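re: ur question from yesterday

yeah so i grabbed the chain u mentioned. its 182 aa long if i counted rite. heres the sequnce exactly as i have it in my notes:
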Amino acid sequence: MSTIKFNVAQLLREEIGARRELPFTEPLLSIDNDLTMRDLDGLVRFTRTVTGVYAHVQVRGVVELICVRSLEPFDYPIELDFRDEFHSVIDVISGVHLPTPPEDDPFMLSDAHLADIGEAIREYALLELPLNPVSPEYRDRPVSYSVQSDDLDEEAENADSDESGSLEALKAWAERHNRKNK
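ran it thru and got these structure tokens back, copy pasting raw so excuse formatting
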């Protein structure tokens, strides 16, 4: 649960197509157990639909990630621009519970007609983050490995001798097989 929630009850009482545009800022939004998006600044436009509200969200923020090359933390700026529908659970006029929409994993308004935009931002931010984050300091540098083993040459020689031994056995088998088939 996030703190970026908007009450859309009044909008649900209006005609289909009615709109509201609301700016928002938030200092922190937990994205995952280890990730937090900070300094959020955004705008949400709600449009009344038949089953609830359609939200167009534009938001910017910063997520601290760990660089896969240097293993140092760095700030990763993230910009999201997405649209999704939030379906009503209860009819705002009659108070009757509404059926669940047929789509997979829809966003739902709460019983109090709150749209949890923070949850949508969290889900879309997880999709936007890189799988292997690289700090800007290391992005244009070639990858160099500094791990070295003193026994590396001996292991390579042993591998070569093992391979040649197994190849010799294979050659001997092939010769025997070819002689039998002649």
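noticed a couple things. Residues 153-182 form one domain. also Helices lie at 9-12, 117-128, 136-139, 152-181.
anyway ttyl
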